Amino acid sequence: MKISKILMPAGLSLVLAGCSGGPSPFSEELYQAEEHLVRLELSEARKVLSEVRKKDTEMPDRYYQNSIRVHLAAFEFQQALLELKRWQQATGVQRPKERTQILIAWLKHFSEYTDLSIRFEALKALGEMRDQSSKDILMQNFEYPSRTVRIVVCYAMALLGDKERALTYLMERARYGSLKQRALSALFLAELKDPALIPVYKSFLEDPENSIRSIGAAVLADLKATDARTALLKILKESLDPRMKMTVAHALVRLGEDKHIEVIENTLKNHLFKLDAELLLYDLGRFSLEASVLERLDELDAESRFVFMRSMIRHGRQEKVRELLSEKLGSLTGTAFEKKMELELMALVGTAEDLDKLEVHMSSPFEEVKVVAVKTWWQIQERLNASSPAI
To answer: What is the reported pLDDT for 12?
Structure first.
């Protein structure tokens, strides 16, 4: 049964952690609740725990552990997080391990959805959370009849350290797949930013599609692959697409060919591409353009806003980006794609003050937004934990 296969291990670890150390208050009642849970008799377990809760006394850890297990078994993940918050408040002890177990269980649940966009986001999140316990469910999804799902599974497996098989499949799809498959595989390979893959990234420059060549140009610049300059110069000379020429010029400047910035500067004169040129120049350090772009931020599509705000973060403007994202995420307007992009950025700049705000998006009517909100919540908390001094 799927419940016992996916959720019960996390629940068992929660309860077993509190089953030692001798008798505790309500031992008999909690034992009954645990017996009901083992048999997945959730209604009965709830009744027992409800009676325990009515007692006017401090609840033992086993109460919270079993209450969380009930919510997990019933796929009530937000309620499980709420119960965890009550547990932490009652004891004054933060419980990151239990929180991560709940979030992982939630994502594993999403990874079984038939909706491909939701399944895709969940599998991607499991890889980005580096959860080794997810390998089995990832490999099961590799058998799913969708190349898009297989591609994201391989990306997740690469992040979990299983690179040999994963990279082989991604490189094959990046070369021989449909346009969508080539672009997605190229994007995931580029996300890895692996110096060992520089020859693969250079091969992207030979693709007939500008979108894939752009991915190659950007990652090669990220990795300071100066031996790619000849191939980039060839594209700059032969391409008739103004955006492609600017993208290549941007990469060349980042690789030390400063003279090619004039390609972007000259495009400023074309009103159709002026904003694109300003974004690239800002990324290259033309900070005087920030105010101009911010005035027209709502004119940008979600992807362009993402690129601009990521540039702002690289240039040390984290607080301004956080301010902008707080406003955007505080609004109920916007598409699912826009919210996903905003949440991905918030993962980079969010603080403890933003965690409660994210819970709104964990209740989003868009399931794929819920997935990204769960991942973002975890990423912010992990970053905060890493920056905290060890006790």
So the answer is: 43
Instruction: List phi, psi (to 5°) of 26.
Output: 65, 30
Rounded CA-CA distance 106/17 in Å is 21
Distance of CA 380 to the CA centre of its chain: 11
This prediction's pTM: 0.87
Task: Give which of 90, 121, 101, 87 is closest to 343, Cα–Cα.
Answer: 121
Contact 222, 193 (CB under 8 A): yes
Burial of residue 5 (number of CB atoms within 10 Å: 0-12, 13-18, 19+): exposed
Could you report how far apart the first and last alpha carbons of the chain are, in Å?
41
Could you tell me if 368 and 336 are in contact, meaning their C-beta atoms sit under 8 angstroms apart?
A: yes
Asked if residues 144 and 122 have their Cβ atoms less than 8 Å apart, the reply is: no
Dump pLDDT digits (tens) for 102-144. 999 999 999 999 999 999 999 999 999 998 999 999 999 999 9
Long-range contacts of 236-241 (CB under 8 A, 24+ apart): 236/260, 236/263, 239/210, 241/210
Q: Which residue has the tokens 């629940």?
A: 11
Asked whether 345 and 325 are in contact (CB, 8 A), the reply is: yes
CB 127 within 8 A of CB 160: yes
The pair of structure tokens assigned to 221 is 């610049």
Longest dimension (CA), the chain: 79
* CA separation for the pair 348, 361 (Å, rounded): 17
> 299-317: per-residue pLDDT in tens?
899 999 999 999 999 999 9
Which amino acid is it at 33? A
The dihedral of CA 23, 24, 30, 34: what is its sign? Answer: negative
338-347 CB burial, b ≥16 within 10 A, e <16: bbbbbbbbbb
User: Cβ contacts of residue 165 below 8 Å, gap of 6+?
Assistant: 154, 157
Reading the block at residue 10, the tokens are 């996390």
Q: Are 322 and 347 in contact (CB under 8 A)?
A: no
